[in-house]
Amino acid sequence: MRRAWNWLLAILIGGWLPVLLIAWWWTSSADSTDPFFPPLSQIWEQFKLNWIWQYWGVHVMPTLENLAAGFILAAAIGILLGVLVGSAPTAARYIEPLVDFFRSIPPIALVPVFILILGLDASMRIASIAFAASFPILLSTIEGVRSTNVVLLDTATTFRLTRAQVLWRVRYPNALPTVFAGLQVGFQIAFIVAIASEILGAGFGIGAFTQMSTDSFMILDAWTGVLLLGILGYLLNILFDIVERLSLRWYVGQKRLA
Amino acid sequence: MTVTTIAIAIRDVTMEYPSPEGVKHVLGGVSYDVTEGHYVSIVGPSGVGKTTLLRLLTGLAQPTGGEILVQGNRLSGAPEGLAVVLQDYTRSLMPWLTVEKNIALPLRNARLDNARLSKAQVRERIDGALAEVGLEGNAKAYPWQLSGGMQQRVSIARALAVRPRILVMDEPFASVDAQTRFDLEDLVLKVRADFGITTIMVTHDIDEAVYLSDEVVVLHGRPAQVTDVVSVELPFPRSQVETRNDHRFAELRTRIYEKVRGLS
Ligand SMILES: Nc1ncnc2c1ncn2[C@@H]1O[C@H](COP(=O)(O)OP(=O)(O)O)[C@@H](O)[C@H]1O
Ligand SMILES: [Mg+2]
Predict the structure, then answer these.
(1) For an engineered disulfide with A74, which of A14, A62, A130, B240 has Cβ 3.0 to 4.6 Å away?
(2) In chain A, which stretches have pLDDT less than 70?
(3) What is the CATH number of the domain that holds A182?
């Protein structure tokens, strides 16, 4: 009961501004004759036509599939490598400058390089996403694993845990809150790169659809693409928060008590 | 005549740490034999090298000289059959594991008749250990949901669950309040009576050392050496009120206090 109240309150507090903005957009655009800024009501009608569910399979699914594949790959690479590097103090010192360098390249700039190497199919998109998104995950995992406190490690040693056990049962869970921070950043980058890779050359995907619509002056369609991207990004972030909260219950509880 | 066996033999152990001014000589030839089944306290002024000695006994560090034999074997790495309780309970329990999973973690590698423990055996060890420390109802709690004293009980339960022959504790009760401290001391006495585990405890509290121990070892000096070994011949079972009011308790405490201060 109290929980339900808290949820409702959170939704009200977090929701009033978006609601206000949409209402403002809706009313101020209602009489618009500018071809580039059609009324929101028209965009909405077109939105329903396009995405429920006409183009769902053609454009939305490819985007979501590439995003999921790329992100999961990035998470696997980042976490695995991060745990190994983070638990070897000298290794981290050698690898970090390199990682910092690659991370500093704007992720979208990498897409043309990947197109050159892998062509225009899905593997290029997945590789670009995985590459760009793995850096924040890698760095935060290294950081989290390395910050395991000495008392915990001593305890593990005296109880004769094996090296593998120390890695996966002490260092890795200890790093998890930090890892999630990296996953969140990585996920945002993955989303950006997924769409950018479609804009820069694809026949399918929400990014491709939006780009093609703009190119052929289908302004209404372009707007529905942008709207869909906003809604998707928002929902995926909420999903991400829920997964994080469920995985880190111990961490959230401990922080609340501290 | 009873035959005494030696659980841990500390032979002329020296320990040096590298420091900006060359080396820091912390232990200078420490020798002492821990009798099987005894409760031994190591006392000494702060910074004398008690924790250092303990780290050597538990295989967390290697001595620069001398040798340590555990059950007759020269120590290399953390010895089997030895469990450790550290002072810092807030950081020695895994915060992402519940109490029972914390206790179960070291049991993954435990062997009974050369076989891994079965699920039922692990359950039995957890329940037994929790009952021993009086935390039956808290198996599913997370450590941070418990008070300091309860967390330290969990550490003790985790140590007991591996059925160690030797229990090593570094200032186990230093960061809990006075009442909890008395409770935990009596808990340790009960554990000792129930299982007869050889116990080595570092403490800076002389009263606590006398109350719990068969023998108190005094470390003093830089580099530190054993300056006194005091046999505590107070009868068991001991009680916070009677034992502490025994005139021999006061005499022992005075003697040890003077040794710790380097007065005699
Ligand atoms: N890892 C280390 N490196 C350098 N000096 C250390 C280290 N550990 C302990 N020392 C030094 O050794 C001395 C003894 O420390 P310690 O064994 O912790 O004393 P105690 O537990 O008796 O208070 C102290 O002077 C301390 O600064
Ligand atoms: Mg100490």
Answers:
(1) A130
(2) 1
(3) 1.10.3720.10
